[in-house]
Design goal:
The protein is an alpha/beta fold. 44% of the residues lie in helices and 16% in strands. The strands form three sheets. Strands 3-2-1-4-5-6-10 form a seven-stranded parallel β-sheet, with helices on both faces. The N and C termini lie far apart (45 Å). It folds into two domains: 190 residues, 3-Layer(aba) Sandwich (Rossmann fold); 96 residues, UDP-galactose 4-epimerase, domain 1 (Alpha-Beta Complex), CATH 3.90.25. Bound molecules: 2-amino-3-ketobutyric acid. The site of 2-amino-3-ketobutyric acid has 12 residues, from loops. InterPro entries: Epimerase_deHydtase, NAD(P)-bd_dom_sf, NAD(P)_epim/dehydratase. This is NAD-dependent epimerase/dehydratase family protein.
Length: 316
């Protein structure tokens, strides 16, 4: 039987590109995009779902005979610190609602997005291994550790096939991220293309793990398509793209925009970034499901700039 896929959080940075990719791959009639409101992003099926409401998730699952769920809704690291209890409530309750719905409705496969934010001071900063000690200091990071463990719990206790990856900062041109610590690496390209100066909220040598959107989406679909016996990690898999600092990305941009100006005004997000890995060891993902990134920093820079030029031309 062909999959019928529900994407929760389809309006977001990853959700929107994932939904369109799944539509192209499986056909529009098999993909149900959902979010808190319909902002007209998709040509295809859209259902308004507040994932805090388990009855609404179940209703949509039963209506469309959904077989797979991708749960992308979450409050990210920087925004989470503004109202930690609300972030906790949303990140955990929506995930438990998805897990419970999946258990009750016999969903075949579920995707959970974790993050490099699960790591804290006790993990090695360089080439951070999959099984490093997890002591995150943001509420987002704590909720992701918790979410990973709930994923594993549902797998062990109920046999639910939950699969998860730890996203680095995702860089894409299609939509803006919202409230993350790695968001500067998207904003910087918009400023460059608009010929505007950029003030970075991290200091110039803050190296963080990042990944291009095409690699992130490919990883997401690849892990979901891997034969079940190959999935050995039931918490979450590290995946690496490319690591760089604001200074390094600015250098690449200046290759195309020699007059590009950047200055640095670190704010509270610097403290968050300082506790995160600089680079990720993704050998488990490479071994178990042949993960391999394609985009290096130069390929990301060239693609971001050419796509944004196209987009801004279209809207001017
Ligand atoms: C964030 O910065 O909060 C996210 C993430 C790394 O999960 N982009």
């Amino acid at each position: 039987m062909s999959a019928v896929i529900l994407v929760i959080g389809a309006n977001g940075q990853v959700g929107s590109v994932l939904t369109k990719t799944l539509q192209d791959k499986y056909g529009k009639e098999r993909i149900i995009a959902s979010d808190l409101e319909d902002i007209g992003k998709f040509d295809g099926i859209f259902e308004v779902i507040d994932a805090m409401n388990i009855d609404r998730i179940k209703e949509v699952v039963l209506q469309y005979k959904v077989t797979q769920i991708y749960h992308l809704a979450a409050i990210l690291s920087a925004n989470g610190e503004g109202d930690p209890l609300r972030a906790w409530d949303i990140n955990i309750k929506t995930w438990l609602n998805v897990l419970e719905t999946s258990r009750i409705c016999n969903i075949e496969r579920v995707f959970y997005p974790s993050s490099i934010a699960v790591f804290g001071n006790s993990a090695p900063r360089n080439s951070t291994p999959n099984n490093a000690y997890l002591d995150p200091e943001t509420v987002y990071g704590i909720s992701k550790v918790d979410g990973e463990n709930w994923a594993q719990y549902y797998h062990i206790k109920y046999g639910l096939d939950v699969r998860s990856i730890r996203y680095p900062g995702v860089i894409g041109y299609q939509s803006l991220p919202n409230g993350g610590t790695t968001d500067y690496a998207v904003d910087i390209f918009h400023k460059a293309v608009l010929n505007e100066p950029f003030t970075c909220f991290l200091n110039k040598e803050t190296t963080l793990p990042m990944i291009f959107i095409d690699d992130a989406i490919r990883a997401t679909i690849e892990i979901m398509e891997t034969p079940i016996e190959n999935i050995k990690v039931r918490t979450s898999y590290n995946i690496a793209g490319i690591s760089f600092s604001p200074e390094e990305i600015a250098f690449e941009i200046k290759g195309l925009y020699p007059d590009f100006k950047i200055d640095y005004k670190p704010d509270f997000r610097q403290d968050i970034a300082d506790k995160w890995p600089k680079s990720i060891n993704d050998s488990e993902a490479r071994m178990d499901w042949d993960w391999e990134p394609e985009y290096d920093l130069w390929a990301i820079t060239e693609t971001m700039i050419s796509k944004l030029i196209e987009q801004y031309k279209m809207t001017v």
